[in-house]
Amino acid sequence: MSITVYGIPNCDTVKKARTWLAEQRHDFTFHDFKKQGLTRDIVAGWLRHLSRDVLVNKKGTTWRGLADERKAAIVDDDSAIALMLEFPSVIKRPVLDKDGVYAVSFSAAQYQQIFHP
Fold first, then answer.
1. Interatomic CA distance for residues 20 and 116, integer angstroms
2. Set 11, 50, 66, 114: catalytic member
3. Which candidate, 11, 96, 110, 114, has a CA 20 to 30 Å from the CA of 49?
4. What is the mean pLDDT of the chain?
């Protein structure tokens, strides 16, 4: 089983997801996308499984700080990828990849369903 958690370490939701995985004794790789970066291939891979409306956090401070013209320019996956690569903080966190099954955010019930269906 391959598990990767993408996020930033000081995000409370990422901390909860990592704690849950550790408590359930799941080995996982943590990818800090601020330090380790993101590639177009990684983000495009997410978009093959997840909607850009799920990945782009429109409730966060990064999104709210964008100019209205920039927000309006997010009209397709390519423009969403460019935004996420330029401003990784706009990505809703964490992004979980468990053997090609993707999920965004964290709740114990959601992870329970993913790991113990």
1. 13
2. 11
3. 11
4. 95
